[in-house]
């Protein structure tokens, strides 16, 4: 899979893309991530990428010309173009799966005050938000999208089974609590049921604690249809 990223801060992406699981995927050739500096496509001496908003107001808006030039300079078969923006469609795991099935994505890192709307209308591009909070720019949001998508590319993650159980694979239930050694830590014991090897009992405990945790931490989720037990 190929992902092009267009940003005014290419150095913000370098470290994360080199390290860890992402770095391995990029190194192995399963994932071809190319980061481009938007200023490459400016033609004025100040290499300006933004300007004041028409109609007035605070902050600056990303100009359309460099973004169009950048996107058009990339592979003409550029795939979906996604602009990171708090005003975008909210990312969830179903959307991640959809994106992971594409051969090629282009991510444009926006900024809070915004990006000229003609980028969305004219390229065209889709706006994508990673959540309802404010960032100072789209770079970390782009990294979140890349990480979430990359781990679904076949071969990137070693243990296919670990996909299945993640929170949000089952969309309405968070993961159950986990424990590892030692059996007792600072006076806190690992629940007895996990030590016993009764797998039916363990499954039941996990279902119950997952349900309780979902209710506590995510009352907006409704939980899976209840099976009689
Ligand atoms: C570009 N706050 O926020 C949430 N998802 C994306 C964003 C975002 C932001 C500022 C600039 C993206």
What's the SSE blueprint?
Blueprint: E1 2-7, H1 11-18, H2 20-28, E2 32-37, E3 50-51, E4 61-62, H3 64-73, E5 80-90, H4 93-100, E6 104-109, H5 117-122, E7 126-129, H6 139-150, H7 161-165, E8 184-185, E9 188-189, H8 199-217
Parallel strand pairs: 1-2, 1-6, 5-6, 5-7
Antiparallel strand pairs: 3-4, 8-9
Helix pairs in contact: 4-6
The structure holds 2-(1,3-oxazol-5-yl)aniline (J9Q).
2-(1,3-oxazol-5-yl)aniline (J9Q) is lined by residues 84-86, 110-112, 129-131, 134-135, 137-138, 141.
Task: Kindly describe this structure.
With 229 residues, the protein is α/β, with parallel strands linked by helices. It contains eight helices and nine strands. It has helices at residues 11-18, 20-28, 64-73, 93-100, 117-122, 139-150, 161-165, 199-217, and strands spanning 2-7, 32-37, 50-51, 61-62, 80-90, 104-109, 126-129, 184-185, 188-189. A hairpin with a 2-residue loop joins strand 8 and strand 9. Helix 4 (93-100) packs across helix 6. It is elongated. The mean pLDDT is 92. The chain binds 2-(1,3-oxazol-5-yl)aniline.
